[in-house]
Amino acid sequence: MNNNVPFDPRKEAPLLSAYVDGELDPGNTARLEAHLKDNPETRNEIEQLLRLKNLTRALRLKIAPPEEWEVFWHSVYNRSERSLGWILLTLGLSVAGGWFAWLILQSLLSTESLPLLVKGAIIVGIAGTLVLMVSVVRERIFKRNRTRYKDVIR
Question: ∠150-151-154 over CA atoms, to 5°?
Fold first, then answer.
């Protein structure tokens, strides 16, 4: 900013925080201090920022005891193991189910004693069942990932 331009607290509000943190360059510091002499509102703003800085400086993060960390890491391992297990189970069942469905489809199509309408109805019924199963599983996963209360302990 130009050092000859008067300080405008509305347009240059971020400079107030920089001033409180001692990060303002000398030219802007001089402009702001000249403005503070005649403007009690900006002085009040600076005082509030200083109080906030002192308050947040006094805050300390509570250190969790080692037992809590052990429980945390144990649950992380359990969740990752279970996730891997579910992925592998789903993959295995999908491959086996696909192979089984292929065998059924092959035997249905090769059977000449069944009318074409019955074969089509069976295929459409199986396809509908698969679509419903996938829909239910997808909905359950969607709801489980987005529920706000999943970590509430009763």
Answer: 95
